[in-house]
Q: What sequence folds into this?
């Protein structure tokens, strides 16, 4: 079945450490997105990519980095510069047109040790 | 920048009853799309329904329907014959800038269906 796979489900980060969250899709979608979800808030866009080898910053990109070397993959790195990384991270993908809904993965919960 | 506001942080309703979740938005565009997403305890985001702003007819999907008031910039979700499986967070979202699909989400409404 086609879908979006995020791994790991739970991740712990030590102070000063970079961690990478994986997002893979087999839906043949062109566009991929990373969102952050905090309690009491909606989803906020971190980065998005409409085509391979190209990506743009979202509303809260500071302290994060991404790459898009393959159509199927859009990993997110939470760097040590992100001072408050504890959150739920959701990856999404779509065909890249506004009227097409985004499909979401199951998310990764990141916590600080 | 577009904004989406959900003014009801929590709601509860008896099973089989009808409930309406409110959403207002602000946009400078004339054409845009609106969505309702459901996030059950499993945390996966699931599309419930979508509305195209240039269509006057309200969208419906089985027990889910919307009341889209373009002039008032209002986009409420009605759930009929509510079921226990409808218990979830519901997020309203909009997208305007065509070409990048940047979704803007509201803060969500936590809906509990009471048996």
A:
């Amino acid at each position: 079945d086609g879908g979006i796979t995020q791994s790991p489900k739970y991740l712990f980060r030590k102070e000063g450490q970079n961690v990478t969250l994986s997002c893979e899709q087999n839906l043949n979608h062109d566009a991929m997105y990373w969102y952050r979800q905090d309690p009491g808030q909606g989803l906020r866009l971190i980065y998005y990519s409409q085509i391979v080898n190209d990506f743009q910053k979202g509303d809260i990109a500071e302290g994060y980095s991404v790459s898009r070397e393959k159509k199927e993959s859009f990993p997110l790195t939470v760097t040590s510069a992100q001072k408050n990384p504890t959150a739920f991270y959701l990856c999404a993908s779509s065909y890249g047109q506004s009227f097409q809904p985004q499909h979401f993965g199951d998310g990764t919960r990141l916590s600080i040790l | 920048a577009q904004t989406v506001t959900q003014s009801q942080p929590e709601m509860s309703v008896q099973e089989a009853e009808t409930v309406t979740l409110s959403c207002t938005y602000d946009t400078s565009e004339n054409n845009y799309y609106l969505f309702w997403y459901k996030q059950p305890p499993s945390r996966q985001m699931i599309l419930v329904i979508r509305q195209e702003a240039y269509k006057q007819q309200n969208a419906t999907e089985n027990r889910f329907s919307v009341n889209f008031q373009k002039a008032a910039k209002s986009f409420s979700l009605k759930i009929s014959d509510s079921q226990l499986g409808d218990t979830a967070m519901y997020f309203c979202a909009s997208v305007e800038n065509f070409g990048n699909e940047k979704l803007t989400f509201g803060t969500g409404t936590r809906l509990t269906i009471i048996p």
The first strand of chain B starts at residue 3 and ends at 5. Chain B has a mean pLDDT of 92.
